Structure formats: structure tokens, C-alpha cells
Amino acid sequence: MPKNTTAFFCKECGFETSKWAGQCPGCHAWNTMEEAPVKVTPKGTSGVSKRTPSALISNGATSLQEVSLKENERFSTGMEEFDRVLGGGIVPGSLILVGGDPGIGKSTILLQVCRFLSESGRKVLYISGEESLQQIKMRAVRMGEFSGDIRMAAETDLSEIEELIAREKPEVVIIDSIQTMYREDIQSAPGSVAQIRESCSILMQVAKRDRISIFIVGHVTKEGTVAGPRVLEHMVDTVLYFEGDRSAMYRVIRAVKNRFGATNEVGVFEMTNAGLREVTNPSEYLLEGRPIGASGSAVTAVLEGTRPMLLEIQALVSRTPFGLPRRTAVGIDYNRVNLLIAVIEKRASLSLGEYDVYVNLTGGMRVTEPSMDLAIIIAIASGYYDRPVSEKVAALGEVGLTGEIRSVSNAGIRVKEAVKLGYEQCLIPAGNLRAVEESYRKYCLPVKTVSEAIGILFKR
């Protein structure tokens, strides 16, 4: 029989060691090692039972040509934005982790998915470890009518959940949340490293063996990552994160990992009293309310996964009463903004040493793509000169330290999105002009340097 012993696990990366260490040897984080019990299998025995073989172990090697993919393997969630993030729909047998801040809408959107799936005739099992069935019913009443049959259970014992899944035979299972699940044979509290690792491993075996799609809800830490070891993210097939301020009306779901689709794909939703509503045109939604004739505003086109989106960048440049100017960036990398300010001062002869500079990406979005560099510089220059940029102008391009404007990927798709929303002129890197379709080149204004772009817009 296997005997129990203990080991130390890193809460951040899941690194395992037999001795405690102040600094994790794997990710070099401090004070992240926690002790947890593990099972040791004696020599000569297999860690996998012969009666219940692992779903990931085959009975021999198979030729790649012999592996067949069924047509229409995916099935829809009933929400186009959610399908987009998943890569086109739910893949049978996939394990999907959904993370986000408390109260941002994880349970709400999964309950909506359950409604659509049950109404389409699929068998759904919703298992809650945090709420009673009456609380879930109250949320369902607020969301509207549920005509399909959704099987529900309030359970945290993983052994009971395994038996329930085997008895109900559902196609989709919702686990809310993984931090509340536990195994009786593991002597540690629910939510600990050992419990999360074991629970996720068992759910993965169930998903692959029975081809059941399982959604796992995960709590997040103060840093915004899923609580528990990062190995949890490595074990699942797809990792989805909710983004956005809870006080705002919109929510963004981003795929940071997807074995069945593009990463960094986003879906935009609006929070209403009846649940989350899809926003099919996020560019128009995020630019709504943009001021006309105001200085310090510029529009850029970014690419989130395969989706082009137009965003507004605002910059406020005001004279500082102190000797040390202040720099602030919201939704944009702070160090990147400081770098671009230095480029402006050196290459475009704008003296910002006596001015505070505040840069904001409106809508609460967080984007790190370098294609926003030119728009950030234009917004700062507009605030410095106190002269507005035409509301029909968009800008995109990466800026180098010598002031050159470098090419960006998929420029043609970005220009198409801008033209579709009524923009008549797009400042793009000169190297990207050939990548734009002939019919859209008349809307493009190629520029090579920062000083050239500022001179064109502000007639210097």
C-alpha cells in the first residue's frame, strides 16, 4: 500500500521539493513554499490502477494518419462572443478554467451558458460549492425564464461529485469553484496546494475519459492570477480571465491559454439586470462618448487575438508647480509611456520637463501592444499644443528609440476596421502600405518618423 508523506509546493509555480526553502528554486519567489501531504507509491507498482486506467494513456502507439476528427466536433454555447473566446465553441472533453475578481460575473455567465445549452437539448450539471441551490435559483429568476432542464447540486466532496457525474452522465459540468473542492484522503484544507492539484487532476481524468466538457471557476489573488499553483493553469486546456472594473458596465473575457484556438482572443459583454449581454461591435461601444474638438485625444487600432478593436487614448499635459514632473499611465505600460516621452523630447523637440503628463486608455481596457505607440505620442503632442486631432483620423505604429515608426502586424485588418467605423485617414508606418489592400490605400497616410507625423497633424 502507498504510504503518506509530506512535501513542499510553491504557491506560484507548483514546484515540488522535499525540503522547505525561503526562495522557490523554480520561480525564485520568496515565502511561497507550503507543506502538503503526498502519496508515495512503492517500487514495482504503478501509480495508475489497472481497473481504472488513465484516460491519457492509450493501449499502444497509433499512426497520426489513423487518428480521425469528427466533423462539427465543437458545439456552441449560444453566445457568439463566448464562442469566439473558446476558439469557435466548446470542444467535448475539454477542461476550461474561468478566473476573475469576485463579483465580476463568472457564475452569471456560466449560468447563462447552462441555460442556452439545456434549451438546445444538452444535459448540463451545475455543481456549486459556495452557494446553496436556493441562492442559484434566485440568480436564475433575475436573469429570466429557464425552460431547459439543468441538473444542480451543492457538493464539495470530490468523491461524491465523481459518483454524481457517473450517475447523471452530463455533457457539460460546471464546478464553482475549484477552491472549495476537497478529497477526504488528503489531510489539508480545501483551497490548499495539495487539494487544488488533486482536484484538478481528477477532473481532468473525468473530462478526457468520458468526453465531458468541464468548466472550473477559480478564485484570483490580489495580483489578479488564479489562486493556487500555476500548475493548475498548465493542466487545463483553456484559461479564461474576466477583465474590467466591477463598477463599470462592461466585462471583457480574454483567453490567455487555449489549446483549441487563438490566445489573447477577447469577448466583450455588458452587465445588465438580466445578466451579461453580448457587445458585437466593441470598437463602437468603447469609442462611445468620445469628446469632439477636445485636445489630447487620439484613436488607435489594436489587435486582440484575431479581432481588431479601435480604442481612444487620452493625454493630459499640464504645467507642474513642482520641480519634478509627474507621469501617470492607466491601462498602458508605465515604463513604455516614459520611454515615448523621452523620444518626443529628443526626436520631436517637445520640451516636457516642466509638464505633468497623464495618459489614459479609455474604457478600462489594458493593452500592451506596441502598435499604440504612435497614437500615444499624438495624444501627448495634442495635449502639449492644446490643439485637437481631427475626429476622422486614426493612428497606428510602433515607435523606435531613434524616432522611426516601425511596421506592425496585420495593418490591413486594422485599417479596414477604422474605415468601417467612418475614419477617413489612417496614419500608418510607411512599411505597412504594401500590406493594405488597394481599395483601402486611399485612406492611408504613410509616415516614417515621429516628427513627420506630428508635423502633418499640427502643421509645424
Helicity, in percent?
25-40%
Count of discrete alpha- or pi-helical segments spanning 4 or more residues: 11
Structural class: alpha/beta
- How many beta-strand runs? 21
Written account of the structure:
It is a single chain. The protein is an alpha/beta fold and 460 residues long. It contains eleven helices and 21 strands. The strands form five sheets. The chain has a nine-stranded mixed beta sheet with strand order 6-5-7-8-4-9-10-11-12, with helices on both faces. The radius of gyration is 26 Å and the shape is globular. The termini are far apart. Residues 43-53 have low confidence and may be disordered.
Write the layout of secondary structure elements.
Blueprint: E1 3-10, E2 16-17, E3 33-40, H1 80-86, E4 95-99, H2 106-119, E5 124-128, H3 133-143, E6 150-154, H4 158-168, E7 172-176, H5 193-210, E8 213-218, H6 231-235, E9 238-243, E10 250-258, E11 266-272, E12 275-278, H7 282-286, E13 297-304, E14 307-319, E15 327-330, H8 334-347, E16 355-361, H9 373-385, E17 393-395, E18 398-399, E19 405-406, H10 411-420, E20 425-429, E21 444-447, H11 450-458
Parallel strand pairs: 4-8, 4-9, 5-6, 5-7, 7-8, 15-16, 17-20, 20-21
Antiparallel strand pairs: 1-2, 1-3, 9-10, 10-11, 11-12, 13-14, 14-16, 18-19
Helix pairs in contact: 8-9, 9-11
